[in-house]
Amino acid sequence: MRILHTMLRVGDLDRSIAFYTEIMGMKLLRRQDYPDGKFTLAFVGYGDEADNSVVELTYNWGVDGYEVGSGFGHIAVEVDDVYKACDEIRARGGKIIRDAGPMNAGSTVIAFVEDPDGYPVELIGRRQ
Ligand SMILES: C[C@@H](O)C(=O)SC[C@H](NC(=O)CC[C@H](N)C(=O)O)C(=O)NCC(=O)O
Ligand code: NI
Asked: What is the ipTM of this complex?
């Protein structure tokens, strides 16, 4: 077994696709409308689904926002250098909500970016 995807409900699909592709460097892997269910799915990720876990963006037609809630944590993205990644993401218009530095109660260097719906995306340095 393997993790295939994490699903996020989004209020504006094009806005989210732009964030995950133009700011986070992912690819739009596929997009499909489901008219009978009045929703659209878009899958984004750093590689094809056969070999990579991806993010499934779900847009329910006419629903423009959601409560992120206190239970949701984050999606984590591996980067070569967290500090450099934050600079690059800021330069591309991304919102860093937690600057790079050692994690709470630990030493792993992390940072958090906020996606357009308020979902945190964690940046973690590649394991040495
Ligand atoms: C290792 C890396 O993948 C993490 O996600 S650790 C991030 C760290 N998590 C916690 O502190 C968990 C306990 C916390 N009370 C919670 O429920 O979130 C984290 O979120 N650190 C925040 C920070 O600013 O370091
Ligand atoms: Ni994490």
From this structure: 0.91
Residue whose Cα lies nearest atom 15 of ligand 1: it is 104
114 is catalytic: no
The DSSP call for residue 19 is I
Kindly state the average pLDDT of the residues 52-70: 97
Burial class (CB in 10 A: 0-12, 13-18, 19+), 2: exposed
In the structure encoding, which two tokens stand for residue 122, read together? 């964690």
Nearest ligand 1 atom to the CA of 105 is: 11
Using DSSP, state whether 37 is helix, strand or coil. Answer: coil
Q: Is the model's pTM score more than 0.90?
A: yes
**Amino acid identity, residue 75?**
I
Ligand 1 centre distance from Cα of residue 103 (Å): 7
Q: Which domains does the chain have, with CATH numbers?
A: 2-125 (3.10.180.10)
Q: Ligand 1: which residue has its CA nearest to atom 19?
A: 104
